[in-house]
Automatic annotation (TrEMBL):
Residues 1-32 form the signal peptide. Residues 33-58 are annotated as: Disordered. Residues 52-108 form the PepSY domain. Residues 44-57 have a biased composition (Low complexity). Keywords: Signal. This is PepSY domain-containing protein. Pfam families: PepSY (PF03413). Gene3D superfamilies: 3.10.450.40.
Length: 109
């Protein structure tokens, strides 16, 4: 029986490089199968609905139902819904913020 011939240094490096590339390709494919990319958040977010109530109407509603003096109104989005935050000065001297759903007109707090 003949003794095995040692591989030249260049052949060993080439073999190691091919082995590493193969492992990289297999692991990348495995990850791609197991971890599907999440849908983009822009697609998941709801588009803001058009307000059925204006900021002034929200302020009037809060003043009639809660009382006090309206100091300001801010508009914000919460889970795709327009919400008005109406800041009022109560007769007791305390400031209070009341949130109003712009679509339904419901006072939220």
């Amino acid at each position: 029986m003949l003794p095995p011939h040692p591989l030249p240094a260049n052949s060993k490096l080439l073999l190691i490089a091919l082995l590493l590339l193969s492992l990289l390709a297999v692991s990348t494919a495995a990850l791609a199968n197991n971890q599907r990319p999440e849908p983009r958040q822009e697609n998941q977010r709801q588009q803001p609905q058009r307000a059925a109530l204006s900021a002034a109407e929200a302020a009037d509603r809060v003043q009639r139902q809660i009382g006090g003096k309206v100091m300001g109104v801010q508009t914000r989005q919460s889970n795709g819904t327009t919400v008005y935050s109406v800041k009022i000065l109560q007769s007791s001297g305390h400031m209070r913020t009341v949130n109003v759903n712009a679509q339904t007109g419901a006072i939220m707090n």
